[in-house]
Amino acid sequence: MRFTLKHIIFIFAFYSCNQNHSNSRNNIEDESGLNTIEHLKWLTGNWKSVSTKGIFYETWKKENDTMFSGRGFFISGNDTLFSEKLQLQQRGTSLFYIATVKGQNNEQPVEFKFTEFNKGEFNFVNKDHDFPQRIIYKNPQPDFLCTRIEGTQNGKFRKSDSNFLKISN
What we know:
Elements (H helix, E strand, L loop, with lengths): L4 H13 L27 E7 L2 E11 L2 E10 L2 E13 L2 E8 L8 E9 L2 E5 L8 E5 L5 E10 L2 E13 L1
Antiparallel strand pairs: 1-2, 1-10, 2-3, 3-4, 4-5, 5-6, 6-7, 7-8, 8-9, 9-10
């Protein structure tokens, strides 16, 4: 098998996303105040994750000093199989990740509250949601985004990871 630059970048991104980076550029010495939207400004731009099942895109833009808006969608062939509207909102000292998923939750927004910054990961939690209960965003290297959704569904723990490359600002 001949490795192309795309293969090498993907392997590096996958490896980076699955490591605990105590020296990650997001692992700021003073973790107090990490509940501000400013610490997620690296997220703005367009991201792409390719798998054998299709392509997942996430786009984020800064609306103002207290809100980022985003969109996520998964395409397989010519079909959009999943679509969601996303927001990051700063409300006083609290930070929220808000997802409105087409065809789920009566298309009402679901809020996940920022709970901790741990080993370079931004954790958002909503224990009352059916699935997921936790959403994790991580930026282990410039132009790499690792996401995980996880929680209990039908009595079993589930998780799903996605590894993105930044395709434009």
